[in-house]
Amino acid sequence: MKNLMYFLGSLLCAVLVAFLLHSWLVKQNDPGYVLIGFGHWSLETSLTVFTVAQVIGFFFLYNFFRLMGVLIRIPNQFAKRRRNIRFNRSQEALVAGLFDAADGNWERAEKVLIKHAAHSGAPLLHYLTAARAAQSRGALDKRDEYLQKASEQSSDTNMTVGLTQAELHLSEKQFEQALETLGKLQSINPGHARVLKMMHQTYQHLGDWEGLSKLLPSLQQHKVLMETEVKLLETETFSRLLKQTIAQSDQQEIQTCWEGIPEHIKALPGVANIYFAAMIAAGAGASVESAMLKQLGRHWDDTLLVLVSNIEAEDKAKQLQSVEQWLAVYPSNAVLLRVLGKLALKAEQMEKAEQYLLKSLNTEAAVATYQLLGELLLTKGDKDQACDYFKRGMELASAELISGIEDIRTA
Question: Is 90 exceeded by the pLDDT of residue 253?
Answer without folding.
Answer: no
